[in-house]
């Protein structure tokens, strides 16, 4: 049996009760944190909170060498942990397909996603979001500051009046060039992302969501050029580029995110 458990957004307490029960009953627990991370808890803290030993796999250990996970799941009750919701990444879908093809029973226990949290925290209605995009570090992809494909996706959403979630890059296991939290990982911040996007949309409204799922998330709305000058604390951050704003959404951005009224009318 292979059960995929989403841990939610922030720390060891973010997982659902059902997810925690599956962790506690598992024979072995694997995890990956390269697609996303719980910034409110270390692996050691997760192990202590759930009284388990967690075997963390890197990207290659999931995508290229999943045999230890799959072989264990053939004879044992195995849990595979990820931050957020476990089936957001194609990597996890691929692992589930491989398990099913080997005759291993699988189950999915969902966790809270950044997308639902962004809608709930900002007051922007969830059915008014279009295609999401990811903003990579320019020095990683070696191209323009903002990839043209991302610009095209945002503009396509805007033409339809839809909001766009902009996920911000996370790089793990390399020495950062901008100075990340340690020598192995770097999180793009919302002010850095806003500065990149402001080159094309200087006076456009955007919303920062920082540390969704934590006890004290930050939600801040203003123009991209203004947001580029502010600081939003510890990761994880994301941006939302609103499309057409309903009057209730406008009220929410003013009340919940400090947006200037003139920007949302």
TrEMBL record:
Its EC number is 2.1.1.98. It is an enzyme of class 2 (transferase). S-adenosyl-L-methionine binds at residues 9, 85, 88, 113-114, 168, 212, 237. The keyword S-adenosyl-L-methionine applies. Keywords: Methyltransferase, S-adenosyl-L-methionine, Transferase. It catalyses: 2-[(3S)-amino-3-carboxypropyl]-L-histidyl-[translation elongation factor 2] + 3 S-adenosyl-L-methionine = diphthine-[translation elongation factor 2] + 3 S-adenosyl-L-homocysteine + 3 H(+). Residues 1-225 form the Tetrapyrrole methylase domain. One of its GO terms (molecular function) is diphthine synthase activity. It comes from the Archaea. Pathway: Protein modification; peptidyl-diphthamide biosynthesis. One of its GO terms (biological process) is methylation. Homodimer. Belongs to the diphthine synthase family. HAMAP family: Diphthine_synth. S-adenosyl-L-methionine-dependent methyltransferase that catalyzes the trimethylation of the amino group of the modified target histidine residue in translation elongation factor 2 (EF-2), to form an intermediate called diphthine. The three successive methylation reactions represent the second step of diphthamide biosynthesis. This is Diphthine synthase. It comes from Natronocalculus amylovorans. The gene is dph5.
């Amino acid at each position: 049996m292979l059960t995929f458990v989403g841990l939610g957004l922030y720390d060891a307490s973010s997982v659902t009760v059902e997810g925690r029960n599956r962790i506690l009953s598992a024979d072995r627990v694997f995890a990956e944190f390269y697609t996303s991370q719980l910034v409110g808890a270390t692996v050691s803290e997760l192990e202590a909170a759930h009284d388990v030993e967690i075997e963390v796999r890197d990207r290659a250990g999931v995508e290229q060498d999943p045999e230890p996970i799959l072989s264990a799941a053939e004879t044992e009750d195995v849990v595979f942990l990820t931050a957020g919701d476990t089936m957001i990444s194609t990597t996890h879908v691929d692992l589930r397909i491989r398990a099913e093809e080997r005759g291993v029973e699988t189950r999915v226990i969902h966790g809270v996603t950044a997308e639902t949290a962004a809608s709930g925290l900002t007051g922007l209605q969830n059915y008014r979001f279009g295609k999401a995009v990811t903003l990579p570090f320019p020095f990683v992809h070696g191209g323009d500051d903002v990839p043209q494909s991302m610009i095209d996706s945002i503009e396509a959403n805007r033409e339809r009046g839809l909001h766009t979630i902009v996920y911000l890059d996370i790089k793990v296991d390399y020495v950062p060039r901008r100075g990340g939290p340690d020598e192995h990982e770097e999180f793009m911040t919302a002010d850095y992302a806003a500065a990149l996007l402001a080159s094309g949309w200087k006076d456009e409204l955007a919303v920062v969501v920082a540390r969704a799922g934590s006890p004290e998330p930050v939600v801040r709305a203003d123009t991209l050029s203004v947001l580029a000058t502010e600081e939003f604390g510890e990761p994880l951050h994301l941006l939302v580029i609103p499309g057409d704003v309903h009057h209730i959404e406008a009220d929410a951005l003013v009340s919940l995110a400090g947006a200037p009224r003139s920007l949302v009318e």
